[in-house]
């Protein structure tokens, strides 16, 4: 295909040199004579030509300049630059220079621009800095990450679009005026529909750069005016440039999430200006998104995201003056002057002046105003004609001879009459625009032509006039103008059609003279008459005839009509005889044409043998699925001893690993008859009135046992009471901790009550002692908190044991604290105490404020006291009981509850129920990650033990790289992709019927970017009940409604299946004994929604920054994240919760900010209705107060107190200090020490870069080592050495004595041996003391884990590559955790952290998703694009250990404050459906229905997948589109030989479905195999079966092009770079392989085009004739037709599936057969884009037409085997590189496995090559890690 970059260049060249009226063919008509805008002489001197010699010179100069920059050693040391910046040696700017050079060749129209104060002495420095700026931006862009742009901030945060970048994105050569606006509106509307909030900024100074390009200047002005007046988009034009103080104030105030900027401009000058904008934005902590390279699907927009880091701020600070100087030089031009035909001079000021006069005159002529199209037309024509005539008159006649001589080299100017002819046609064009509907205009014939060189300058002058006209109309607010049709001021295609008609056809005779039509004629007459009235100085004749001169305006040689030579192939479907097809798509088949059986398309179908699931069609060899490639572990008797030992070892470890997750021992499960009945009986047992004798005896025995235990506990307490009281008085914190630890060991409520009363008395005595000691000074209220806390516990938990004397005592204590009102409430009496001693112990704070502000997280939660017999170890909350009820009733449930709230308990209750019910029932637990799978398996082994018959296992695992006991386990723990394999496999249907429950953990992954459709497939294919768990779903109601509709479908389907397959069910029951009992449970299709929003522990946030060598740790109030606009537009987020003290802080600030606040008294804590005189204020009471304060805050804005709210929010904000990246990491260890001092460990430090994770942990470790060295005795080493020597001597002596044989020894020898053994023990003890790590030099808690357990855990690191380092760090209480580690390494860290031994863990997001790693604090130590609202909530969920911590803490360590604000206030994403169908999925469904034993069940599953996509839920039109897509996908599969006409799989269907997650590469791979391309390539070394390095390298090249596709930004190819080991840019496929890809693409495009043409009837045509964002309607109801208009139409042009706006640019239906045009052309209301077409792009281009190269990481690694090289050369971080390579290696092995099953010859060269490559690649990967 032709590079679209050429088109972009043509636009620039054409606008300057050629025909702006028609861009279809301008490049062809400029060879003879080019017309352009010429820069000044200064610019000419700096420009360069496109000759190769000059290019070399330019490159040498550029290289020299860059090398000079790179040699500045001092600067380089000070700057934080990455490896790429330092290694760059040349910038290829030749293309841009060529652009400038080409602009110097025009002669007929020039724009002269003069730089202000341009000095040659500063030019060199200026150019050098621009080179450095380019390098800086380049190094940032190459690190850009291709991500979903909006993430989860989209609903609450806005971003900025640079207006000039927006204009450049859609500046395409063939795009006409109205279509240009349509495409921009589509782009913006797509953002709007996805929930984005944005503003557009056009900088005033940037306008200067467009004067050489009048068309762009005019478009820019019109676009600004249109967006501002006709859309709801906020457009800013008040900022002069990106370095202006006003812009900086705006950024600081509003802080956008990111700014979309183009990295390429019309010229190198504009590109440099955009680079300055990028540099400035990044320096202000605002991320940048490239305008180029963006793609979108139904849910998301993807793009290259550049994250702001300290390096950007350092660059700006260092070069701020250079940047300002460069910006002033780039945009600081004086007013340009224009020359037409060289000798006609024109100043834009004169145009502006003339426009101003014309507007005043027109206001008199049209006082009522008019349509903007009329106004712009008459003004630009009148002003243009007047100025042009003036110029001709004022030409210097005295230089006639000279002019004659110079005229030979230029075009002759048009005469005024000829110019008037052109203007008349422009008026006629606008007359048609005013009345002719878009439906008619879209049918206009496409005329490829261009203006003559004489006309071009005049058209460009007209565009300048239109620009100044629109600018002038901004100041006419008193004049009523209809600005609705600003996007339709011009139609180039229509103008050229009219010009051609009047030049060619009109003169041929009367038969060609067509009538304009009355309304068009009147309109045109009115317009021209107005033009003549405005141009009062000259007479330009009447309106008719339209052409008064014979001057040719169009180039005859280049004029031709576009003929649609490519005929659209007939749409005819090959009939498919399948029940599934008929039932799903039967209704749409009625209007789809079907081919006859004798049609060539049918008779030429590829004939393959039918594909069988058990044996392949070609080789007849057994075909295995992934789950059958492993053996079962359950039947240990069939194993050899070594294998049995490995199984036992694995199970032992799982028990051990599980013990770190669960405190209780595993429960022995016994098979029971009916668990649900037993459970219900247990619940209802207490309701029985009459008890049997046996029950009475059992109860009596139980009472006796309880009495005995109570007596024992009472004796134990009596022994501890006095020491505990002393401990509390000595150290309150330690004493209370011991007291509470003891309370947890007690069971007797009366003993607990006694302990609490004693604790209360001791705390009060401690408080009194403290008050006496402090006297009148301020007191430590934390001591009083413990008194009040004990009172709360006694009143709430032991109220039934409180007697009168106890209450009197509590009343007295409350009076002592100064809470008289609470004492009265408790005693029921009024009056004040007369005790004078009370006042000195009183708290000088109100009781309500004291409880909220000081008791804070100690406030009690609302908890139930009645136990549930189904739960042993805790009392479940109401919502948890609802879950248990759902499981007991076999119901489904969607559970949305915060992390650590206990929602997963229901999962294990469900497992226990199924284990008890039978030996055949299956529970499937679906987890999103392998780490979570391992955790769940460990928990299962810890909780349950069950003896099963041989061949059955309790628990099985199925992940991509590990599987055991998949088909023979009762609990299968798996990932979604693997369960989908089982659900859609024909041979697993009997197994799927055994499934009784499926548990979906982290179900919000249904909305993730990768793999979301798999979750969707599973939810709709399971017939059994399910539990769907998540902490982060913002629209659970919608999700539940969708799932209810799925269950209704299954209720109906089951009734049909059960009615028609009784016999098969009976056979199945006989085969699986006990199944009848499983099935005997009553089926339920109910889906419950269980919501619980209250987090058990509050989270408090802190912002940390480095100030000098100390840390500023400031509390971050959640409300500080809000802004007035956010509250006004979105309200206060529902999950933005406050702790009690934060509620008090908010109230106090509100009172301080608004002293006359009317509700201040009402909302005072002491007066608030839920607090007043309340002894025990609970968390629910505080929530009411919090909600009331939030409500009042919103009310302030309604009352007009925006300024007060602003002041309040600003007051709450912390003021962190910025620091360098280097300093931040250098002081991380000190920050950990700070947290240790604050008692905030254990903590998880989340860092998103793998290298940084390890380095941060090492940094902390080395800090402890350094501290130990500095503190220890300098003689320690010599002492240790001496002790070791002595110990060695003792051991040698003992060996000589041989103490094991003591019978033959004398008593003296025995005595000597005993002395030696005692000495040895003493030496070892002394040596251990010397080698022990001092307590101040380790964070580890040695009491947490005994030595045997520690040794057992460390034993797993024995053979690990970094095992010694991990062990040494763990002994200091430090660990790290990331996905690139081995499973053993991660498990060691997880276990030691859970046990409390390790206190500091640095980790990536591997610990975010559901992993049980509770801690006291979570620290975000690095910002990242992946730190979004969803990850934030998952990660902070680790903080605050239930039962261990009263509160969780979140620390933001040098995270930009605006990012913190976004994280706190953003909502979690809503779950929305994605486009559900792919070719591979449809093939898998057809395979399932064709080959399954139970056809009815298989068909029901397939129909459920097809009918219940979340995307089409409650959207009938989408559902019908999906049916048509399904039918055309079937057509492709049939034509390509994957299905026969009965829907049976044939040919390579098996291989394609095995690689389904790599579509469309799987289909391309098969096409290579079918064509024998791999066999040609894979030829071994002669005489062997070994393949050469070249063959394997070429094979990796092909596979990397197919499966390892990771695109780089287009700008990466613009620069030359010295790469040390990698090639970086992936080479293209070999020619034969590329040809096969092109053939595949042609077929896919044809099929997709037919799909689009068929679905066109489903489009909303009313919407199609409106602009998508502004809703401007172009249907034009008052059109009465025109003979001329009808003549100009092309009735043969087919445009049924093309947007009428796109038709204006010459796009027709047959263009849909070219994939690159689809997104621009297809009907917008269909909601379909090219991502739904399985095209395989050989080359990919961005919006500017530049090729985006593929990263050659997979091939580069195969060559050098270095992960480090991939980070330095290929712009990948090590973690990402590892994951990519691991997937690539697995893929090679997967293909090799599939080929081994397909191939009947085990020595086939292709098979051997893949096997050899897979082995080598895996070995290289193992060596690298």
From TrEMBL:
Ranges annotated as biased composition (Basic and acidic residues): 1-16
InterPro entries the record matches: DEAD/DEAH_box_helicase_dom, Helicase_ATP-bd, Helicase_C-like, P-loop_NTPase, PIN-like_DDX60, SKI2_subfamily_helicases, WHD_DDX60
Gene that specifies this protein: DDX60
Keyword field contains Transferase: no
Domain Helicase ATP-binding: 884-1051
Coiled-coil portions: 691-718, 1306-1333
Residue ranges of the region described as Disordered: 1-60
Database matches in PANTHER family: DEAD/H RNA HELICASE, PUTATIVE-RELATED, DEXD_H-BOX HELICASE 60
Designated name of the protein: DEAD (Asp-Glu-Ala-Asp) box polypeptide 60
Cellular component annotations (GO), alphabetically ordered: cytoplasm
Residue ranges with Polar residues bias: 17-33
Key word Hydrolase present: yes
GO terms assigned for molecular function: ATP binding; helicase activity; hydrolase activity; nucleic acid binding
Biased composition range(s): Acidic residues: 51-60
Lineage, top ranks: Eukaryota, Metazoa, Chordata, Craniata, Vertebrata
Gene3D superfamilies: P-loop containing nucleotide triphosphate hydrolases
């Amino acid at each position: 295909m032709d590079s679209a970059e050429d088109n972009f260049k043509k636009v620039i060249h054409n606008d300057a040199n050629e025909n702006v009226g028609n861009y279809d063919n301008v490049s062809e008509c400029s060879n003879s004579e080019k017309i352009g805008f010429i820069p000044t002489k200064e610019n000419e001197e700096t420009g360069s030509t496109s000759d190769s010699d000059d290019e070399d010179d330019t490159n040498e100069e550029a290289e020299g300049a860059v090398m000079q920059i790179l040699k500045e050693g001092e600067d380089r040391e000070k700057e934080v630059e990455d490896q790429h910046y330092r290694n760059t040696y040349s910038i290829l700017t030749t293309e841009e220079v060529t652009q400038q050079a080409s602009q110097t060749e025009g002669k007929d129209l020039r724009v002269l621009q003069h730089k202000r104060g341009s000095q040659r002495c500063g030019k060199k420095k200026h150019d050098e800095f621009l080179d450095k700026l380019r390098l800086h931006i380049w190094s940032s862009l190459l690190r850009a990450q291709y991500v979903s742009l909006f993430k989860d901030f989209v609903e609450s945060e806005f971003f900025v679009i640079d207006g000039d970048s927006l204009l450049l994105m859609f500046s395409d050569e063939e795009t006409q005026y109205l279509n240009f606006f349509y495409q921009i509106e589509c782009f913006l509307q797509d953002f709007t529909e996805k929930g984005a909030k944005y503003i557009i900024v056009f900088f005033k100074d940037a306008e200067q750069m467009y004067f050489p390009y009048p068309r762009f200047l005019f478009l820019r002005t019109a676009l600004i005016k249109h967006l501002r007046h006709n859309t709801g988009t906020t457009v800013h034009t008040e900022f002069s440039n990106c370095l202006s103080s006003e812009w900086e104030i705006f950024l600081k105030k509003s802080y956008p999430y990111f700014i979309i900027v183009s990295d390429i401009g019309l010229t190198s000058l504009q590109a440099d200006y955009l680079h300055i904008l990028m540099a400035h934005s990044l320096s202000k902590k605002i991320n940048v998104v490239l305008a180029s390279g963006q793609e979108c699907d139904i849910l998301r927009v993807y793009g290259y995201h550049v994250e702001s880091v300290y390096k950007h701020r350092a660059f700006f600070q260092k070069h701020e003056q250079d940047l300002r100087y460069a910006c002033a030089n780039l945009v600081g031009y004086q007013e340009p002057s224009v020359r037409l035909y060289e000798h006609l001079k024109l100043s834009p000021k004169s145009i502006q002046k003339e426009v101003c006069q014309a507007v005043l005159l027109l206001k008199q002529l049209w006082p009522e105003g008019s349509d903007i199209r009329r106004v712009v037309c008459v003004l630009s024509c009148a002003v243009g004609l007047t100025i042009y005539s003036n110029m001709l008159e004022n030409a210097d006649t005295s230089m006639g001879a000279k002019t004659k001589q110079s005229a030979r080299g230029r075009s002759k100017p048009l005469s005024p009459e000829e110019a008037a002819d052109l203007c008349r046609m422009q008026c006629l064009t606008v007359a048609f625009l005013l009345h002719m509907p878009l439906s008619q205009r879209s049918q206009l014939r496409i005329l490829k032509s261009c203006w003559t060189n004489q006309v071009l300058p005049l058209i460009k002058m007209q565009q300048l006039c239109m620009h100044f006209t629109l600018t002038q109309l901004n100041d006419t607010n008193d004049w009523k103008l209809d600005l609705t049709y600003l996007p339709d001021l011009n139609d180039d295609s229509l103008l050229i059609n009219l010009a051609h008609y009047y030049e060619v056809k009109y003169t041929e005779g009367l038969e060609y003279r067509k009538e304009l039509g009355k309304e068009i004629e009147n309109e045109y007459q009115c317009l021209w008459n107005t033009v003549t009235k405005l141009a009062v100085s000259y007479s330009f004749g009447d309106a008719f005839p339209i052409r008064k001169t014979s001057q040719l305006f169009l180039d005859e040689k280049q004029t031709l009509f576009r003929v649609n030579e490519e005929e659209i192939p007939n749409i005819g479907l090959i009939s498919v005889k399948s029940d599934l097809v008929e039932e799903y798509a039967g209704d749409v088949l009625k209007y789809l044409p079907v081919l006859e059986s004798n049609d060539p398309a049918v008779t030429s179908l590829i004939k393959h043998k039918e594909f069988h699931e058990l044996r392949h069609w070609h080789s007849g060899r057994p075909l295995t699925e992934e789950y059958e490639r492993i053996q079962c572990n359950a039947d240990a008797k069939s194993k050899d001893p070594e294998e049995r030992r490995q199984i036992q070892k694995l199970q032992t470890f799982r028990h051990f690993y599980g013990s770190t997750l669960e405190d209780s021992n595993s429960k022995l499960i016994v098979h029971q008859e009916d668990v649900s009945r037993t459970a219900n009986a247990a619940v209802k047992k207490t309701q029985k009135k009459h008890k049997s004798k046996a029950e009475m005896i059992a109860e009596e025995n139980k009472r006796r046992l309880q009495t005995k235990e109570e007596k024992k506990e009472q004796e134990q307490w009596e022994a501890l009471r006095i020491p505990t009281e002393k401990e509390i008085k000595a150290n309150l914190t330690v004493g209370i901790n011991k007291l509470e630890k003891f309370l947890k060991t007690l069971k007797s409520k009366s003993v607990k009550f006694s302990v609490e009363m004693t604790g209360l008395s001791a705390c009060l005595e401690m408080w009194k002692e403290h008050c006496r000691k402090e006297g009148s000074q301020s007191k430590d209220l934390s001591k009083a908190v413990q008194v009040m806390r004990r009172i709360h516990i006694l009143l709430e938990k032991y109220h039934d044991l409180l007697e009168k004397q106890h209450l009197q005592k509590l009343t007295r204590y409350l009076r002592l604290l100064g809470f008289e009102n609470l004492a009265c409430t408790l005693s029921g009496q009024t009056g004040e105490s007369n005790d004078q001693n009370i006042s000195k112990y009183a708290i000088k704070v109100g009781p309500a404020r004291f409880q909220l502000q000081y008791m804070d997280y100690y406030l009690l939660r609302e908890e139930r006291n009645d136990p549930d017999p189904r739960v042993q170890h805790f009392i479940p909350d109401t919502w948890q009981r609802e879950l248990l009820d759902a499981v007991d009733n076999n119901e489904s449930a969607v559970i949305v509850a915060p992390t650590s709230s206990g929602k997963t308990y229901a999962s294990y209750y469900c497992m226990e129920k199924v284990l008890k019910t039978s030996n055949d029932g299956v529970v499937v637990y679906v987890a999103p990650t392998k780490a979570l799978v391992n955790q769940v398996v460990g928990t299962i082994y810890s909780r349950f033990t069950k003896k099963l018959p041989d061949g059955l296992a309790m628990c099985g695992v199925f992940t991509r790289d590990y599987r055991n006991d998949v088909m023979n386990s009762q609990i299968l723990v798996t990932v979604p992709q693997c369960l989908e394999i089982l659900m859609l496999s024909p041979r697993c249907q009997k197994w799927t019927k055994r499934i009784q429950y499926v548990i979906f953990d982290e179900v919000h992954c249904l909305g993730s970017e990768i793999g979301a459709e798999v979750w969707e497939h599973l939810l709709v294919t399971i017939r059994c009940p399910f539990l769907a768990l998540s902490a982060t779903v913002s629209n659970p109601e919608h999700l539940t409604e969708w799932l209810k509709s799925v269950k209704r479908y299954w209720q109906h389907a089951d009734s049909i299946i059960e009615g028609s397959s009784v016999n098969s069910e009976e056979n199945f029951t006989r085969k699986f004994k006990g199944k009848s009992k499983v099935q005997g449970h009553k089926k339920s299709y109910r889906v419950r929604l269980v919501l619980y929003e209250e987090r058990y522990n509050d989270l408090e946030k802190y912002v940390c920054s480095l100030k000098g060598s100390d840390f500023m740790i400031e509390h971050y109030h959640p409300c500080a994240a809000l802004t007035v606009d956010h509250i006004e537009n979105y309200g206060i987020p529902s999950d933005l919760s406050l702790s009690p003290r934060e509620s008090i802080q908010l109230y106090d600030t509100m009172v301080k900010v608004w002293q006359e606040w009317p509700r201040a008294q009402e909302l005072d804590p002491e007066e608030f209705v839920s607090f007043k005189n309340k002894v025990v204020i609970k968390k629910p009471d505080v929530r009411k107060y919090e909600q009331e304060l939030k409500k009042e805050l919103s009310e302030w804005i309604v009352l007009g107190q925006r300024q007060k709210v602003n002041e309040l929010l600003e007051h709450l904000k912390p003021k962190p200090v910025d620091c360098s990246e280097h300093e931040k990491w250098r002081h991380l260890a000190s920050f950990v020490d700070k947290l240790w001092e604050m008692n905030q460990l254990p903590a998880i430090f989340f860092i998103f870069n793998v290298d940084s994770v390890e380095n941060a942990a090492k940094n902390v470790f080395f800090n402890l080592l350094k501290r130990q060295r500095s503190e220890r005795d300098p003689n320690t080493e010599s002492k240790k050495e001496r002790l070791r020597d002595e110990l060695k001597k003792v051991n040698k002596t003992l060996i000589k004595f041989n103490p094991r044989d003591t019978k033959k020894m004398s008593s003296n020898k025995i005595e000597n041996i005993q002395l030696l053994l005692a000495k040895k023990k003493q030496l070892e003890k002394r040596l251990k003391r010397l080698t022990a790590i001092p307590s101040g030099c380790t964070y580890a808690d040695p009491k947490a884990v005994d030595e045997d357990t520690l040794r057992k855990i460390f034993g797993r690191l024995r053979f690990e590559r970094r095992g010694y380092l991990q062990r040494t760090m763990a002994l200091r209480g430090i660990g790290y955790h990331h996905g690139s580690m081995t499973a053993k390494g991660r498990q060691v860290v997880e276990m030691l952290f859970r046990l409390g031994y390790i206190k500091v863990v640095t980790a990536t997001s591997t610990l975010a998703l559901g992993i049980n790693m509770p801690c006291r604090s979570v620290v975000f130590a690095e910002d990242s694009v992946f730190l979004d609202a969803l990850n934030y909530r998952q990660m902070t969920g680790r903080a605050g250990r239930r039962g261990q911590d009263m509160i969780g803490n979140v620390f933001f360590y040098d995270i930009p404050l605006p990012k913190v604000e976004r994280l706190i206030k953003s909502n979690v994403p809503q779950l929305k459906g994605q486009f559900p169908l792919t070719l591979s999925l449809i093939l898998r469904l057809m395979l399932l229905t064709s080959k399954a034993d139970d056809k009815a069940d298989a068909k029901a599953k397939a129909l459920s997948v097809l009918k219940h996509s979340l995307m089409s839920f409650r959207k009938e039109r989408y559902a019908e589109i999906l049916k048509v897509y399904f039918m055309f996908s079937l057509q492709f599969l049939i034509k390509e030989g994957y299905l026969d006409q009965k829907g049976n799989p044939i040919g390579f269907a098996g291989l394609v479905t095995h690689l389904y997650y790599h579509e469309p590469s799987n289909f391309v791979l098969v096409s290579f195999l079918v064509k024998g391309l791999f066999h040609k390539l894979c030829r071994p070394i002669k005489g062997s079966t070994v393949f050469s390095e070249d063959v394997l390298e070429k094979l990796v090249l092909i596979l990397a092009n197919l499966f390892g596709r990771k695109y780089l930004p287009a700008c990466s190819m613009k620069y030359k770079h010295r790469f040390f080991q990698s090639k970086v840019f992936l080479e293209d496929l070999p020619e034969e392989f590329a040809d096969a890809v092109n053939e595949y693409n042609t077929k896919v495009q044809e099929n997709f085009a037919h799909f689009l043409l068929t679905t066109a009837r489903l489009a909303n045509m009313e919407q199609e004739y409106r602009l998508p964002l502004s809703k401007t309607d172009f249907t034009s109801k008052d059109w009465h037709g025109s003979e001329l208009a009808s003549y100009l139409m092309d009735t043969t042009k087919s445009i049924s599936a093309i947007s009428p706006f796109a038709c204006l640019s010459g796009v027709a239906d047959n263009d849909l057969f070219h994939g690159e045009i689809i997104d621009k052309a297809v009907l917008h209301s269909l909601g379909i884009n090219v991502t739904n077409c399985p095209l395989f792009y050989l080359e990919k281009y961005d919006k500017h037409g530049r090729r985006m190269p593929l990263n050659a990481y997979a091939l580069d690694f195969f060559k050098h085997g270095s992960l480090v090289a991939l980070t330095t050369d290929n712009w990948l971080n090590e973690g990402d590189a590892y994951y990519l390579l691991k997937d690539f290696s697995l893929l090679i092995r997967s293909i090799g496995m599939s080929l081994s099953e397909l191939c009947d010859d085990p020595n086939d060269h292709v098979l051997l090559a893949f096997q050899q490559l897979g082995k080598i690649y895996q070995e290289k990967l193992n060596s690298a890690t």
